[in-house]
Design brief:
Blueprint (H helix, E strand, L loop, with lengths): L1 H32 L4 H5 L6 E7 L5 H14 L3 E7 L5 H11 L6 E5 L3 H6 L20 H6 L1 E2 L2 E2 L2 E6 L1 E6 L9 H9 L12 E4 L5 H4 L7 E3 L10 E3 L1 H18 L8 H9 L3 E7 L3 H5 L5 E4 L13 E9 L6 H14 L4 H5 L7 H4 L4 H11 L2 E2 L6 H16 L4 H15 L1
């Protein structure tokens, strides 16, 4: 009898252990997947619904195909049809096709800086069905601001871009200022460990987006929300100091404008022939797939009191008011933005705007990028905003090419006053 009880106790113990193991295995999966198919499964349909998705960047193709397959497996009455389109006259083509009813998109992927234009053309619906998901718990402030115009949420944040510095950990260390980087270059010595290195530091000094961080928070275009056209200003004194430090790097590192674009410098870093460079999210996959032991850091400050300021580019999914089935279109937009976000980097080589992709990751470099993204300001979305960014680009080109800094900055600042 005692033997029977002992065997019975052992059997129950084994069952409990087995159950606990199943729970332990299932819980992490539920946490990572967040029941991604839930939205697709919940849509009750009687006939097949095709959702046409327009996009202009072919990098998204593998991700769109993946989501289309996942959604269709979850609900075989939803079929997503991605269509790669020309970026020229993109919104105009969406409008014309929608009005004339010929092959118009139900949802479309677009840079968030075009939001006001799309809104004025009547091409966006509010993101209200799934609005509770789109908060600073799940997305950065910059992502939410970019998806919002005039206090109304329209976009479903998809991906983002932001600049950062990378360095080769095997031959160098983290720097917090450009002076530290320069001192490293002065003391650099060749040995067996760094035999492949051909250049200490270079970056694309012509690229407006990469170099906007050197404005050091001296420029306001659209306020924190990015949509206030009345909020335009330049702190000339800070900008002049920033440009003085910025142009110093030309002589210290022997960098010529126009010699290397960001594709070149990122590839050289990934090949292990450059120690430091400034790159962005769009080039992260190439670096991450390389054999370089790298670390991502914020672009160093130019000098004391001149911290670099980060601006992010945001890409969102938008639902057309001309969609064949608006509720299904909204569900698909949400699936692209939220439900399957964890597959974005693997499939498209881009980073999802969703914060939990970082929270679920053990990759310190990706986590650092998300931290920088959370601290960034979104690129302005009001119509005509690119004028100001293009004028900044012209200004930094002039400064780099030797024009008097005071003259270049004063001319740039005058544009802000004249265009108000």
């Amino acid at each position: 009898m005692n033997l029977f009880k002992k065997k019975k106790s052992i059997n129950w113990t084994r069952k409990i252990v087995a159950i606990m193991m199943v729970i332990a295995l299932c819980v992490p999966l539920a946490g990572c997947g967040e029941n991604a198919d839930k939205i697709a499964k919940s849509i009750q349909l009687e006939t097949l619904k095709q959702v046409t998705v327009w996009y202009t960047n072919d990098k998204y193709a593998p991700y769109l195909e993946y989501v289309a397959e996942q959604v269709n497996q979850a609900n075989d009455l939803i079929e997503i049809k991605p269509q790669l389109m020309d970026s020229e006259n993109y919104l105009e083509n969406i409008y014309n096709n929608s009005i004339h009813g010929s092959d118009a998109p139900d949802i479309y992927i677009m840079s968030a800086d075009q939001l006001e234009k799309a809104n004025m053309m009547g091409l966006v619906l509010k993101n209200n069905t799934y609005a509770s998901y789109y908060n600073e718990k799940n997305f950065s402030k910059a992502a939410i601001e970019a998806a919002t115009f005039d206090n109304e949420l329209y976009g479903y944040p998809l991906s983002f871009n932001i600049p950062f510095m990378v360095y080769n950990k095997d031959v160098a260390s983290k720097v917090s200022t450009f002076d530290e980087l320069y001192q490293y270059s002065l003391n650099y010595k060749m040995d067996d460990k760094n035999a492949n290195i051909k250049q200490i530091f270079d970056w694309d000094v012509s690229n407006m987006f990469i170099n906007y961080c050197f404005s050091c928070d001296s420029i306001d275009i659209g306020s924190e929300t990015g949509d206030d056209i009345s909020s335009l200003s330049v702190n000339k004194e800070i900008l002049k100091k920033a440009m003085e430090q910025y142009v110093k790097q030309k002589e210290q590192f022997g960098i010529a404008r126009g010699t290397n674009v960001i594709d070149d410098t990122s590839t050289k870093f990934a090949e292990g022939t450059m120690v430091y460079t400034i790159t962005d999210v769009n080039h992260l996959k190439e670096i991450d797939s390389s054999s370089v032991n790298y670390e991502i850091i914020k672009v160093p400050k130019l000098a004391d009191g001149l911290e670099t300021s980060l601006m992010s580019e945001n890409v969102d999914v938008f639902v057309s008011p001309y969609a064949d089935d608006i509720e299904v279109a909204k569900a698909v937009a949400h699936c692209l933005s939220y439900d399957y976000a964890s597959a974005m980097f693997d499939k498209a080589g881009l980073l999802s705007a969703k914060n939990s992709v970082s929270e679920d990751s053990k990759d310190n470099n990706k986590n650092m990028v998300y931290q920088l993204f959370n601290d960034s300001k979104c690129q302005a979305q009001f119509m005509g905003q690119m004028y100001y960014y293009s004028r900044y680009e012209i200004m930094i080109h002039k400064v780099w090419d030797g024009e008097d800094i005071t003259t270049a900055v004063d001319t740039f600042a005058a544009d802000f006053v004249s265009q108000k």
